[in-house]
Amino acid sequence: MQTYQRQGSILSYLDEIAESIRNKRLADIFRPIDFIANESYGPHNHLRLEINYVTTGYCYLNLDGKRMKFSKNDIMLIPSFVEHKFVAGSKGCKLMQLEFMPEIFNLLQADIDPTSSIPALSSCNEVIRISNNKKINDVITKIIEELMNKDALHTQLIMLHYAELLLLIYRHLINNTQPSDNDTLNSAINLIHANITGPIDIVVLSKQLHISDRYLRQLFSKHLKTTPIEYINNERIKLATQLLKDEKLSIKEVAYKCGFKSPQYFTKIFKKQRGISPRYYTTIQ
Predict the structure, then answer these.
(1) DSSP-based three-state secondary structure for 252
(2) Helix or strand or coil: residue 28?
């Protein structure tokens, strides 16, 4: 039998990515699922990226202040921490459902320019709709089938399909997204999310964007009604609320994992934004 040398190959690269994923979880939810008429779920949010492909019927996502309808062959891509409520249509619906940790896409897109005007999927804060894209629908189906069947080399194939899925989604965004009125702001946000767990210096960030820190503050004030520091702290607290649900992590560990310089500063910002201390928050989850 022929022996394949995998060192430096695509297969070895895919193996390395799969090995580096926390607990080697290639997906948390992967299934075809039926919903009866008007069945609902939520509202809720989670760290996982959620991709649902409607195969039959229609359904709704109730979001903050709006409702989106998804019909047959529509895909809903729900980013991390986006609050949503699912409601099936009047005749029910069927979905291909896939949920996985954002680190999978983060690892695969490590070489994508972080200043691109197309946002990293792991840092989006809005639901993305993709309609009648057979290639993406097929890849989602392949990933779910490989996860369910677990045939030989399924790990490598799943990672290969994830890479294909990521590229197809980016192609869709590039082909269907008009240039932003402020690509610099988008680039700043992408850089912040790419480095959210580490120290972020506003002056250094501004230099990476080839602008002054004063102009950066003006962009955040004009378009987001906040400051860069407040935006960074808000995103870090969003991450912290999820990590605090893990009983194995201490308050100190969560603080540093979210990029805060000290547990004391983390507690101060958490209380300012949530009205309660991180420790008390853990008791009500």
Answers:
(1) helix
(2) coil
- Fill in the DSSP letter of residue 53: E
Give yes or no for residue 164 having a pLDDT over 90: yes
Q: For residues 204 and 164, state if they share a domain.
A: no
Which positions ≥6 away from 79 have C-beta within 8 Å? 49, 121, 122, 123, 124, 125, 126, 127, 128
Predicted TM-score (pTM) of this structure: 0.60
Does residue 167 form part of some domain? yes
Distance CA 159, CA 17 (A): 8
**pLDDT of 97 above 50:** yes
Question: Same domain for 101 and 199?
Answer: no
Within a domain: residue 3?
no
For residue 51, what are its two tokens?
Answer: 């991709």
Which residue among 176, 207, 234 closes a domain? 176
Are 189 and 162 spatial neighbours (Cβ–Cβ below 8 Å)?
Answer: no
Sign, CA dihedral 21-23-24-29, equals negative
Token pair 């194995």: residue: 248
Same domain, 222 and 267: yes
**Is residue 34 predicted with pLDDT exceeding 80?**
yes
